[in-house]
Design goal:
Helix content: 40-55%
Strand order of the largest sheet: 3-4-7-8
Number of helices: 20
Strand content: 5-15%
Number of strands: 14
CATH class of the largest domain: Alpha Beta
Length: 507
RNA sequence: GGUCCCUUCGUCUAGUGGUUAGGACACAAGGUUUUCAUCCUUGAAACAGGAGUUCGAUUCUCCUAGGGACUACCA
């Protein structure tokens, strides 16, 4: 067998915002392609015009771009195998549908949706299952059961029709899935799927998918597990079209499940659990569905957490950059079982990636946020602060609540800390401390500390009690980095003014 | 209902015909940090059940149960 160039595609339907299950499929395709020096193709599968959603295609582009998955060929990027949008490939498919009719692999059917619905309803009432298949196709209205004349007549009269694939009888169809191994289906359990419809002159997913994968020379089809049941149809289609030799290898990825309860992850789970289910914000009529980006996640953290959902490198490494993922990825190590999404671990990944960022990069990000809050600060000052507080947060957006006191005096004091630390001789001591602090000439952490320590000793108070009260005065609560460093950075005047304010306002 | 897929700590997972079944998140305890967070140490926590094969099965086979996907002129 000659080795073909690895070419994989991510083929979403623009029916709404891409959700993280789709993002993970894209990621695995991307990793597989890059790992093998192949191409990552983005194809838009918009053969169902009724479900088209404005902006969904752009959303896919933006999402992949944000996550750093560079598309080699696609609608925007172009390429030799275009167009990359199925609605623009309309003219291509009919020919293959006709070919299937001619070779006897498919037939025209005239049953209306209403008629079929009725048949389904009766079948259901009798607790039977209705399927348009070998058992009843001769009783239905199609070019197999009708005379050639009648077929021609109906078509000439402009009656809508559909082309169905004629699933052969009792044939075992076997596939060797890259993640699931050997899976076999018998065609007797399969129905005659619609592959083309006259109403809009468009193929359905199955035909379009096979034709495009073939024409685009796709070598591996990596997609979600929900597609596993249609594999036999696809294989039969390749066979019928005589494309078996170049049929891609399949890999069906496990699903991402709800954090708790039953079923696969849905938008509602995100609302309920307070975590994003989409890469980017998506505007809804009644609000906005939260995106990872806007929720403060780094793209590398999202890639990392998604990659580890259903895949692992076989080592104990858990933190990966996208390049490291490419390096370590292997489709054989993808799991078969569905993986529950864990919002806590998602945060942890972000925190880990945040801690790995250098202070300069973080300070730039934080500075943007400061500007939004109307705070203007020297970038080197911001960088110093970021260095001190970055290990205390999961997100850049939490930097503010951990460091606001560097930029403005606390407007309130945590009542719990007040109750615990601001009592007895402490308020009086703090008042006296102002005079002592005034005497500090060289305003650096060590000297400030020395003065306070001396004063504490002189008054015979508890060190911890005083330091915590001092902290309360400077930051408004019982948190934050090293207190003496805070005082130093705040400067003499500001520190003293905050102590004075505390003495006046608490109590 | 039918077809197909899946099943190791609460969760993500590693792993083997003989292991003290390993790691991570979360949780708990202790230490460091005179705060909070980080960090360190420790702890609790799993092979769905039943048969079979075998000297021996979590690992192989079968059955059962549970979970999941699909079952459209949607993808």
């Amino acid at each position: 067998m000659t080795a073909r160039k690895v070419r994989v595609r991510f083929a979403p339907s623009p029916t709404g915002p891409l959700h993280i299950g789709g993002v993970r499929t894209a990621l695995f395709n991307y990793l597989f392609a890059k790992k093998h020096g192949g191409d990552f193709i983005l194809r838009i599968e918009d053969t169902d015009s009724t479900r088209f959603v404005e902006g969904a295609e752009e959303y896919v582009n933006d999402s992949l771009a944000w996550l750093g998955m560079a598309v080699d060929e696609g609608v925007k990027e172009g390429g030799e195998f275009g167009p990359y949008k199925q609605s623009e490939r309309k003219d291509i498919y009919k020919k293959y549908a006709d070919e299937l009719i001619e070779s006897g692999w498919a037939y025209y059917a005239f049953d209306t949706p209403a008629e079929l619905d009725a048949l389904r309803a009766t079948a259901e009432a009798e607790k039977r299952n209705f399927a348009y298949d070998m058992h009843n196709r001769m009783q239905l209205k199609n070019s197999l059961s009708l005379s050639d004349d009648e077929v021609k007549q109906r078509m000439d009269a402009g009656e809508p029709w559909v082309i169905r694939f004629k699933m052969p009888e009792n044939t075992d169809v076997q596939t060797n899935d890259m993640v699931r191994g050997s899976v076999t289906f018998n065609t007797n359990t399969l129905d005659d799927k619609v592959i083309f419809k006259s109403a809009d002159q468009l193929p359905t997913y199955h035909l379009a998918n096979i034709v495009d994968d073939h024409l685009m020379e796709i070598s591996h089809v990596i997609r979600g597990e929900e597609w596993l049941p249609s594999v036999p149809l696809h294989i039969m289609l390749y066979k019928a079209l005589k494309w078996e030799d170049t049929m891609p290898t399949f890999a069906h990825l496990p699903l991402i499940l709800k954090p708790t309860g039953k079923g696969k992850l849905s938008k509602r789970d995100g609302d309920k659990g307070g975590f994003p289910v989409f890469p980017l914000n998506w505007q809804l009529e009644d609000g906005v569905a939260a995106g990872y980006k806007e929720s403060g996640y780094f793209p590398e953290a999202v890639n990392n957490l998604l990659a580890l959902l259903g895949w692992n490198p076989g080592t104990e490494q858990e933190l990966f950059s996208i390049d490291e993922l490419v390096e370590s990825f292997s489709i054989e190590r993808v799991n078969k079982s569905g993986a529950r999404f864990d919002p806590d671990k998602a945060k942890w990944f972000n925190q880990q990636h945040l801690m790995r960022k250098d202070n300069e990069e973080l300070s730039l990000l934080f500075n943007d946020e400061l500007n939004e809050r109307g705070v203007v600060a020297d970038i080197s000052f911001v960088e110093q602060i970021v260095a001190m507080v970055k290990e205390r947060v999961n997100f850049v957006s939490e930097l503010w609540e951990q460091s606001f006191f560097f930029f403005e005096a606390p407007s309130e004091y945590d009542p719990k800390v007040v109750k615990k630390r601001w009592k007895g001789d402490v308020p009086a001591f703090m008042g006296d401390l102002v005079t002592e602090l005034e005497k500090v000439d060289n305003w650096v952490a060590d000297d400030i500390k020395a003065v306070i320590a001396a004063q504490i000793e002189a008054k015979g108070l508890g060190f911890g009690l005083v330091m915590n009260a001092f902290r309360l005065a400077l930051v408004g609560g019982g948190f934050g980095p090293d207190l003496m460093v805070i005082a130093e950075m705040l400067g003499k005047d500001e520190t003293i003014s905050r102590v004075k304010a505390a003495v006046e306002n608490i109590g």
